[in-house]
Design goal:
Distance between the termini: 8 Å
CATH topology of the largest domain: D-Maltodextrin-Binding Protein, domain 2
Strand content: 5-15%
Number of helices: 14
Largest sheet: 7 strands, mixed
Number of strands: 11
Number of domains: 2
CATH class of the largest domain: Alpha Beta
Radius of gyration: 22 Å
Strand order of the largest sheet: 1-3-2-4-11-6-5
Shape: globular
Order of helices and strands: EEHEHEHHEEEHHEHHEHEEHHHHH
Structural class: alpha/beta
Helix content: 25-40%
Length: about 425
């Protein structure tokens, strides 16, 4: 029997929409079948409000069918692990809602421990082919993407112009190389820019650093795990170590650091900033930066091109008619458009996002998904991998790459070998 490890639950922010006291699968006083969904964001956030909008639209559309959706919002105030612990507790107590949201690399773990069920027969093959990616485990579909994700290097056009740096030739179709990336950093530093690039090395408290940095390992020719769940010989291969050495070199040369201010790029103190599509709304609205002031460059390549992909997904925890109806509603192009309008991310549907202006930030993100998008490793125990990846990033700050990578790979393999 598979056992789930339950840790002490952290305090999370929970808000509700539609009456959280109503029991999933039960009926309200009007005879409506209640179907519940739990989202991973604050209900008062822009993304949370978008989900509420679609829940309310569902309730209007399904009123005659006596199905009513109810939403809870469990904000991840302390990172991905805390959210997982809430799900595990609900699983053990039998209180999981019909639909949960989860980060795509956790699909294998959630399917392995039966937190989510196979949804292949909920959608036709034609419907499944409409999505850019699907979340699979052992060849079966367990997660439907809410939105898609990619990342790149936001850059300050004014600083680059003053430094005489022309990056117009570095496109998704013709990405720059590791060496060209370092050369741009050197020229920014020579120009007097305090932090040429914010590599987000300080973001290891949650999934952010892993998500943004793992493509560099693939780009260097490395990988992380084989089909048998073995990281030894992969995470610590010479090619993977070359990717980690790239980060070390940037720090050693003073091109980045572990203590870049959170707003340094937005206030003109850093030349480049590694981030995902969620930064676009911040630049346009929070910091009032028009598109003439900034641009987005793709991931650099070494022996190959690789870029980040994979965002949050919907998972069905039990197969019911009401749950299927709500899952399909939340997965429509209409729902995707409402949500990505709020988040700045890329729609998960192939039919959306095809009209972005050439070389706009959105175009770069979408095109990368097509040309070089490489998912995070599919593995049971992904959260352990992510934690050890973060340990490596922190460890190479003042230690040699070889020793750090070998040590943490060995420890991670020991942890993974315990998974049943």
């Amino acid at each position: 029997m598979k056992k789930l490890c339950l840790l002490a639950l952290p305090i999370l922010v929970l808000t509700s929409c539609g009456g959280s006291s109503e029991k999933d699968g039960g009926q309200d006083s009007s005879g409506n079948t209640i179907v519940k969904v739990m989202f991973h964001v604050d209900g008062q956030s822009e993304e949370g409000m978008a989900y509420k909008k679609r829940i309310n639209a569902f309730n209007s559309a399904y009123k005659s069918q006596k199905i009513k959706a109810s939403a809870d919002f469990v904000a991840r105030t302390q990172g991905t692990t805390s959210y997982e612990q809430v799900l595990i507790s609900m699983k053990q107590e039998g209180t999981l809602p019909s639909i949960i949201t989860f980060d795509s690399p956790n699909c294998s773990t959630y399917a392995h421990y039966k937190l989510v069920v196979n949804v292949d027969d909920v959608f036709t093959e034609e419907e499944k082919n409409e999505f850019i990616t699907l979340n699979r485990y052992q060849g079966k579909t367990y997660g439907i993407p809410i939105q898609e994700s990619s990342a790149g290097f936001y850059y300050n056009k004014t600083i680059f112009a003053e430094a005489g740096i022309d990056v117009s030739g570095y496109t998704v179709e013709n990405p720059w190389t590791f060496d060209q990336f370092k050369d741009v950093c050197r020229r920014l530093k020579d120009h007097g820019v305090a932090t040429p690039v914010d590599m987000r090395l300080d973001a290891t408290r949650d999934e952010t650093a892993t998500y943004l940095l793992y493509p560099f390992i693939y780009a260097a020719g490395g990988d992380f795990v084989d089909e048998n769940g073995k990281v030894t010989g992969h995470l610590n291969s010479n090619a993977s170590k070359r990717g980690f050495q790239f980060f070390k070199d940037l720090v050693t040369n003073g091109y980045t650091s572990y203590s870049v201010g959170a707003t340094d790029f937005f206030t003109g103190k850093a030349g480049m900033y590694l981030s995902s599509g969620w930064t676009i709304p911040d630049l346009l609205h929070k910091y009032k930066k028009n598109r003439d002031e900034w641009g987005l460059l793709p991931y650099p390549k070494d022996v190959t091109a690789a870029s980040a992909t994979g965002s949050w997904s919907y998972g069905l925890t039990k197969d019911t008619e009401a749950g299927r109806a709500l899952l399909k509603w939340l997965s429509t192009p209409e729902s995707a458009q409402v949500i990505t309008d709020a988040t700045g991310m890329i729609p998960a549907h192939k039919t959306l996002g095809n009209d972005y202006e050439i070389n706009s930030a959105e175009y770069v993100l979408r095109k990368q998904l097509e040309l070089s998008g490489t998912p995070r490793p599919e593995m049971v125990g992904y959260s352990k991998f992510s934690a050890y990846f973060a340990n490596i990033i922190n460890g190479i700050y003042n230690q040699e790459v070889n020793g750090v990578v070998d040590s943490f790979t060995s420890s991670l393999q020991t942890e993974l070998d315990k998974i049943k």
